[in-house]
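Dear support,

Our group has been running a series of protein-ligand predictions, and this particular one with zinc ion is the one our PI (initials K.S.) wants archived with full inputs and outputs. We had some confusion internally about which version of the output was final, so please treat the block below as the authoritative record. The input we submitted was:
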Amino acid sequence: MPDSADIIIVNGRVRTMDPDRPRVEAVAAAGGRIVALGDNASIHDLAGPTTRVIDAGGASVLPGFIEGHMHLFSGAAELAHLQLHGVHGFEALETAARIYAALNPDRPLVLGQSADYTILGVGRSVTRHDLDRILPDRPFALAAADHHTMWANTKALEAAGILHGKAVGPGNEVVMGSDGRAAGELREGEAFGPVLALAREERCRLGLSTGGEPDPMPTPAERDGDRAIMRRGLDWCARHGITSIHNMDGNLYQLELLSEIEAAGDLACRVKIPFHFKNFMDLSDLEKASRMAGSYRSEWLSSGMVKMFYDGVLDSWTAVMLEDYADRPGWRGEPLFSPERFAEIATEIDRRGLQIAVHAIGDGAVRAVLDGYEAAAKANGRRDSRHRIEHIELTTQADIARFAPLGVIASMQPAHPPGGGGFPMEPTVSRIGRARWADAYPVRTLQQAGASIVFASDWPVAPIDPLLGMRCAVERTPWAEALPSQNLTLDQAIAAYTSGGAYAEFAEHRKGRLRPGYLADIVVLDADIDSVETERLNEVSPRFTICGGRITFAA
Ligand SMILES: [Zn+2]
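Confirmed final output from the archive:
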């Protein structure tokens, strides 16, 4: 141990998340690692003349939060867009959009983020004419919080060249009106891509839209601008107590930008970025995933994972179901890969020793992904692969039982179930249908069945705040009587944001807990979360975020 610590935190209610020593008063860090835990007196002894001493004042001290599924680049870009979280009704939308448009006269697209599917009322979809009434003269579009649907005005549809429709691949749709023109609603990326392109922020979404690299490569000035966007996103994470993120849309460009920030000495968060495999790619494209994994394997920047989408979302009927949608007989959604093709791809990724994370929302998608993982294990032999399924909004009891034996991680977002974290009940609960509500967002059932759980926001789909996520997890209430309860304890919710995230990145021996030798990734809150009423958990905020022993946020 060094002569003195770089930083000590005393008078804390320290939850270490270490079962061997769950609660202490104080922590010391030096050289970017935790060097000691204990009572105030023994940790005070480690303070020297240059030691930074933080008095937690009786508030909670936790391992830095690990945000297990988010979109850093696009989320950071969206912080500058019109924010529609909580906006309902035509007048409220009109007011918000007109104020924003007036304040941002040079934006090529007025883009509203986090619009509810029911922003203009239940059972009423948004049309281009609705949006024309608000802003007829500028391209104007709304994006659903889930980022799977957009609604555009006539000007935007015209400028994007899709007013008369567009041929798109399975799972995507330019919804057409009875007049033979686009109605305004655009389902999934191929349909709304041309409208989104009007915002001229394509580089922020490349990792999601194509998984490819910028072409042409950005000019030095554009690159500076992109690094500034990334920094804004990293600061947003640090402000929320987050020290590690799993950025779920991937390309090499983002890793390069982040390594430039790291070289400048102020990377505020550890970042994992996958290679994104899209359905137009060949197996040989996975060579790049192996290259990314080989080039980025530090504690700060890593890859080693392949992200895929198997389906879309419930609200636009693009999630893949085992049975017909309750509110759309004869329709079960179209997968982005056939089950056979998915198994083939999963087997190749697994053979390369890489981790797989697949977006699967409907029960049909969850089953196909589990089948693919099973096929991979059969072909390549069982290993500690920790493949993941993202979201799992609907599944079946039979498939829940397969997670633990297959070693598959359930990556879930506690703020996503409708009726909880700000998402309305409709249309989601009607899509699922009452008969299947019992198997929707089944986090506790999965945990009781032995599955490893990792929590996240999927920011910018939901607010990034882990304390909001914890509140949603703890307060989750069933949609109807007699449904199984799916809430977790506070301790389980914290674990899913700390040790669960560490496990998901094969880092449980280095992070996710406060223990000597572990990375000094720590969050000091402004209250004791054990004595705060659960409905006020999201009012608790970080006072300090410490990543690698460096203070990355101070309130
Ligand atoms: Zn996502």
